[in-house]
Write a structure and sequence with these properties.
heterodimer; A: alpha+beta; Thiol Ester Dehydrase, Chain A; six-stranded antiparallel β-sheet; 3 helices; 24% helix; globular; B: 169 residues; alpha+beta; 8 strands; 32% helix
Chain lengths: 141, 169
């Protein structure tokens, strides 16, 4: 992305208070594909014994990433909302590492967008979690 | 020989509430979201108190789908952990003394979690209750329902599968 595009994309995230409070950064947004990152933060810990980040924080990242991918799709005229989101947690994220989530709209109709996403820590070979989601496509007549 | 007199009701209530509070307060993300639990016997109700940082779309305004998902997952995980803990308190495997000393059992791990968004979350407090449909030695299946003003008008529900902590570990 150009610097200009990055700025526009980030301002989209900053307009969402919850995404902003989790410190999410949009690093790619184009044509139904989004990449969103979140730094490790002790406030997001879900398991005090292992210091592993909460599944809920990863859900929030993936939901936002899927939503951003939908919004960036040329066939989405205005806004979107999550209909359904399923997350599979394959392994625990390594404490201290940032989470990178990448989402892609793999099918879209006049009313529904189908999205897949994967999240990684520093190990890019083995995903931490995957998501499949359905989003509304609003504003088409 | 008669069995020892049970503790006065106020004492046992207070100690159980302390065990629950200890469990919830040990999880930083529950504090971050502002989630707390009320207890009636073994039944828990979770509350996510409204704050502006929970908003997703400021134009509507509606709760962020991610905040809702996290709230439901937290409710399921703590509900499941509490159900297990309760069983172990009743049978005496776990004593309130241990719990009060911070010897909390390991939390169940989420295997998968599916959220069904029924209507947009309004900018006000949200409530949720979990129902453990099956809890085996290794796996558990939990359903959660969340509502705001009206109990029967759900704004989201979810089902999740969890890996139970190893009792030896």
């Amino acid at each position: 992305m150009t610097e200009e595009q990055t700025k526009t994309a980030q301002s989209f995230i900053d307009a969402l208070p919850h995404a902003k409070s989790l410190g999410m950064q949009l690093t790619h947004l184009d044509n139904g594909v989004a990449q969103l990152e979140m730094a490790y933060d002790e406030r997001f810990i879900g398991d005090p014994d292992t210091q592993v980040i909460s599944g809920g924080a990863i859900s929030a990242l993936m939901d936002t990433c899927c939503g951003a991918a939908v919004m960036s799709h040329p066939k989405v005229p205005s806004t979107t909302a999550t209909i359904d989101l399923r997350i599979d947690y394959m392994r625990s994220a390594k404490p201290g590492q940032r989470i990178v989530s990448r989402a892609e709209v793999y099918h879209i109709t006049r009313t529904v967008a189908f999205v897949r996403a994967k999240s990684y820590d520093d190990d890019r070979e083995n995903a931490v979690a995957t998501a499949t989601a359905a989003f509304t496509v609003e504003g088409t007549t | 020989m008669s069995r020892p007199r049970p503790e006065p009701v106020q004492v046992i209530k207070q100690r159980r509430d302390a065990a629950l509070a200890g469990l919830v307060q040990s999880i930083p993300y529950a504090q971050f979201l502002g989630v707390h639990f009320d207890r009636r016997g073994n039944e828990l109700t979770a509350t996510m108190s409204y704050k502006d940082e929970l908003i997703g779309n400021p134009l509507i305004p509606a709760l962020h789908g991610g905040a809702t998902a996290a709230f439901l997952e937290m409710t399921a995980q703590i509900g499941l952990s509490w159900a297990n803990l309760w069983g172990n308190m009743e049978t005496g495997v776990l004593s309130l003394d241990d719990l009060e000393a911070g010897h909390l059992p390991r939390l169940p791990k989420t295997i998968d979690f599916t959220v069904d968004y029924l209507r947009s979350g309004l900018p006000r407090d949200a409530y949720a209750r979990a129902r453990v449909n099956r809890s085996g030695r290794r796996y558990a299946s939990v359903h959660v329902e969340a509502w705001q003003d009206k109990r029967e008008k759900l704004f989201a529900q979810a089902t999740g599968h969890f890996l139970m902590p190893d009792p030896q570990g």
